[in-house]
Structures are given as structure tokens and as C-alpha cells.
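Retro notes
What went well: the complex prediction finally ran end to end.
Inputs used:
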Amino acid sequence: MTTPLLDVQDLRTVFDTKEGTVKAVDGVSFQLEAGETLGIVGESGCGKSVTALSIMRLQRPGRIVSGKVQLKGRDITKVSDAEMREIRGQEIAMIFQDPMTSMNPVLRVGFQIEEAMAAHRRFTGQQARDRVVPMLQRVRIPAAKERIKDFPHQFSGGMRQRAMIAMGVSNEPSLLIADEPTTALDVTVQASIIELLRDISRELRAAVILITHNMALVASLCNRVIVMYAGRIVEQGPTRAIFKNPQHPYTWSLLRSMPRMDEVGKERLVSIRGVPPDLGKLPTGCKFHPRCRFKVDRCLTEEPPLAEVDPEQLARCWVLMKNVPNPEMQS
Amino acid sequence: MLDPTSLPEIELPGSPFEGDTSRPAQSFWNESWERLRANRIGVAAGVLILILALIAIAAPIFSLVLTHFDPTRQHLIDNFRPPGHPYLLGTDELGRDTLTRLIYGGRVTLGVASLTVVLSLTLGTTVGLLAGYYGRWLDDLLMRIVDVFLAIPAIFLFILMSILFRPNAFTLAAIIASVGWGGVARLVRGEVLSVKQRDFILATRSVGAKDLRLIVRHLLPNVLPILIVAASLGVGQIILIEAALDFLGLGIQPPTPSWGNMLTNAESYFFHSGWLVVFPGVTIFITVLASNLFGNAVRDAFDPRLK
């Protein structure tokens, strides 16, 4: 078996607060093959972004307390800060949620893209300068030659996100982490950004981790999905399987809470009761049980393991949706 | 009835097409500069300061062409001459020409003021950036040092320093700056703490930028506006401090003229030869007023927190 591009094992990231230690990421493990697209979904505050930041070691003020993050077989939680800087941008690049605030307002867009390359040695200064316009053209910014002299506030939100993508891929990384890349954007430009992300990752043969709470995005873009809840993976598997046969009640509820083109009029939309738990005061047993419609006594006391329910599909549940007859009736 | 033809034509907003490049590049700096230029009082004050500075720089030319006197040359026969000819603004008790001394005094006063600003901004900014960016123990250490400096009663420090170092323009600037940098450091640190939280710093880190690059290229330009404001508002205050020290004999020593030390002796002759007090006093007053007005205008134009 070949080594995967990224192998995360039992990653735990905590934040020290006045109320005590908060486990934002609690034992997350997954693998990612080269060129693969993985979706990480879940509600706000369930640890998606912290997982991504921990992979880049940008989780400060949080601390990675245990676990391995192996990139091409090298554990990058152990490398020096200087080596980590070389990995950021060159091996792993990140695209952030809000393009409005992710660019430095006082520096010209062209300069900021050039800077992403200048921070590394893959390109010489001259090469970096020459690559700025083609990079912007590649992300389909019209009149790129003139626009490199613009400041970020002269770009629209969609254009800024394109520029951020250009910045991210300028060093041709093998892994691109997109943290809710379309959440802050107008619905009309979301599709074009996603399309761009897909095309450019294919061109570069880069793997993508797409963090989102938009299930539709996952369906259209990802090979595999990880569903997170309260800092844990609760379900994981191929996109098709997850959408067709969600086994964890949380995944099932997420899917029931949004309209689906392929099942028009069949089912009513169902909301998930309550809010995600406070990570400082987690419930006992299964962390989802206070909101779960299908819980049994065991869920209150004992946390289920992430177990195989199908080849390739894992779920962290004592009940499993396949064992619930007529789930719609119970909601 | 509403006649559709009588309705005024509605101008549709320009095409929202993403690639519209018709607007000229308007940076923060351009905008601020435009705002500053629109402020008439501010511009007038700025021009006045510029003129004073030019006169001070060109002092030898002025004394050669306009006043024909040397600032330290005594004309004992002509002491206490009222303003007139050939002493345009009169003479002092040793027969030295007041106008010439004012012009040369401007060199000292404005020179010390600018040097002080440069020194305290450089030190304060460096300390503020380091403390704000690295945080933790370095922040604690540097800020406690700042607290110590800010807690020292300035006037005693001035007296002590003046005794230890014979004051000239450079030591005087260093002395005043040693008191002023603490405030700048606090200001910069506070701004860095807020800028540091912004997403673009994280984004810049995510492309693998080094600390030095982050501090110099990303944090510094973002604190520059408040530095400009601090500098322009500080000048007036520094001129006053400098004049006060000179007046008390703790600053620039005679016979080198400064606006402050010209007042030292003049005070004894206030009723006898009032111009000796009035001219340096008014010069200081106008300069400080212009500095403050200009400083306010700069703040209105540049301070990002006012927007």
C-alpha cells in the first residue's frame, strides 16, 4: 500500500480558557490520497476549521496535544517552525472564508500574490513577478494586467476570492484547504468560485479539503465526506454512500434539513432541535444524544466508537439509521 | 393618471460586470491625502510650518541678505534697541539682533522637535511592534519597561539628564524622546493587537511568510496612519517642552539661540523692553498653534479609527 498524501491520526487540539481546557478537536483521524477531494461538514463550532488550522499548525492560541499529521510520510507536527513555514504555501495552501478581510487592505493585490511566491524559493524574484498576471488570468480575472495595481477594496468579493485562490495555488501546492470558501459570497458567484476551485485543483492535481456546512457543495465536489460533531468525526465515507444511506442520526438530520433536487416533494424538511453543545461542558455518552431523536439508554452513558458500518463507511452511533424503521414517523 | 412618458428617465447604475476597470486606483493614502488637502485650515497651518522650516534651514542666507547680523555677535552700543532700522525686531541686552536670533533659534527648536519625533517614533514603534506581535513574556517585559518610563516624573528626568549630559540639540532630543517613546509604544502595541487578529495576518501566515515579513510588510503599513497622526500631534507638544527646558536653562545653552532660552533673560526686561519677550513668545505660540492645527487636520484625514 502506498503512503497517502495526508494521514491524520488521532489529532487533538485544545484551547486553554478561564473555564478550563476546551477540546476543539478530539481524536480526529483520516487519510487523503493525492488528487482526492474531501469534504468536512458540520455545524459552526464543531471543530472543522480548527482541524484545518491544526494541519497547517496555525491553530494558535490552541495547542495540538497529541496526534500525528503525516504529509507524504513526514510528521509535520514534529518539524521545526522554519520547516513548517516552507510547507505552508508550498505544500499546503489555505483559502479562507471571508475574502473581504483575508487580504491586506493597504497592499496592492498584485504585490500580495507576488509575496506568496517571494516567501519561498520555488521561484526567483523575477519569475514571481512574471507569474502574477498569468495567475490572475488563470483564476479568470478580466484585465489582469491593470488589476494587479488595484487595492483589495477595489475588487468585488468574488474577485477577491479568486485572487485568494491565485495566491493559494501560486506555489503549486499538493494540498489545498478551502475553509468555507463561498460562505461570505453572493449566491450568484458561489457557483463560479466552486467551479474554479474544481478546475484549478484538477489542473494542479492537488488534493482538496473542502470545509463547509453546505451539503450541496459537498455533493457536487467531493469524493468523500467527513461529518464532524463536537470535535469528533461522527460519520465518514464516500459521498454517494453518505448521501444515500446516512447512518448517524446527525448526518441523517443534516440531510433532512435541506431541500434536495432528487427527492422533490417526498419529505418535509426537518430541523435539528437545539444547538451544538458547549465544548467546555460536553454531555456524557454520545455527544449528540441530547439532540438525537433516536437515542437509546446506552447513548446517555457510553460514547460509541467510530465503527465500520459498511466497507469504507464509518459511523459513531449505537443505533445506526439502518436499524430505525420509518425514521420520518419518529420526527 | 400616470403618464409613463412623463416620468423622468431613470439612470441605471453602471454595469455590475466584474471586470469594470474604469475607476482609477484609489489607495488609502491617496484618499487621505485628498481629505487633508480639502481641509483649508490644516493646509494653511502646514504651509506655515513648511515656511518656518525653510527659513530655519536657510538661516545663514537670511542673516546675510535680510538682517546683515550674526546671531551671537554683540553690539554693546546698540543694546535694547526697539524694533526699527537696522535691527528689524530690536536687540537684546547685549545688542544682539532679535530677528537673526529668532531665525537661528528656529533651527534649534525645529531641529530638536523633528529629531525627537524621529527618535521616539522609531523606538516606540519598534518596541510596540515586537510587544504586540510576539505577546506573552516579551509583551509583559517591554510594557513594564514602558510603564517604568511613563511613571518617571519627566521634569526630574530632564534635570538629571541635563546635569549628566551637557545639552546640545542631539542630547536634548534624546532626552525628550526618552520620555515620549513610551506613549508611542503603547499606541502601536494596541493597534498591533487589533490588526493581528484580522484574517489577512492568518492568511499571510498560511502562505509561509516569516515573522519579519509579517511585521514589516503587513503590520507596519497598517499602523502607519496612527503613527503619522501621533507624530504630527506630538510636534507642538515637543516644541513646548523644548522651549520650557531652554527657558529653565536645562536645554540649549547660550550663546546658541533658541526660542526658549531667548526668553530666559528677556523676562527681566519685560517692562523695559517688551519686544524681547513678545517676539520669541509669539513665535512659539504661532508655531505650536500651527503644529496642533496641522496635527488635527492630519488626524481627521488619516486616522483609520475615525472612519
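What we learned: Confidence is low (pLDDT under 50) at residues 1-22 of chain B.
What to try next: split runs per interface for comparison.
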